[in-house]
Amino acid sequence: MPQVTLYTTLICPYCHRAKRLLKRKGVVFQEIPIDYDPAQRQTMIQRSNRHTVPQIFIDDRAIGGYDDMVLLDECGELDGLLGLA
After folding, report:
1. H/E stretch holding 4
2. Cis upstream peptide for 54 (omega within 30°)
3. How distant, in Å, are the alpha carbons of 6, 13, 29, 36, 82 from that of 3?
4. What burial class does residue 85 get, using C-beta atoms within 10 Å of its C-beta: 0-12 exposed, 13-18 middle, 19+ buried?
5. All structural domains of the chain
6. Pfam families under this entry (predicted)?
7. Residue 16 to residues 1, 7, 31: CA-CA distances in angstroms?
8. Residues 39-60: pLDDT tens digits?
9. Has this prediction a pTM greater than 0.85?
10. Helix 13-24 and helix 66-74: axis angle, to 10°?
């Protein structure tokens, strides 16, 4: 099973939606809150080249944010990346 990592903040509605989608699929993920952790925020930016949350990674592949993950799901690619297909 691939390792799924989400960088999140407490007040981000898209972060909550991303977690809900993954939970609905039965995917275990690591959540890294960056609200009060500048080092983790910097790590997220270096890994993704983005400043917004959520930032979602499957193994070392940057998926993008919630909208990007939904697009992958709608076109049938997400389950394969998550090892569910």
Report:
1. strand 4-8
2. yes
3. 10, 23, 7, 24, 8
4. exposed
5. 4-82 (3.40.30.10)
6. Glutaredoxin
7. 22, 11, 11
8. 999 999 999 999 999 999 999 9
9. yes
10. 30
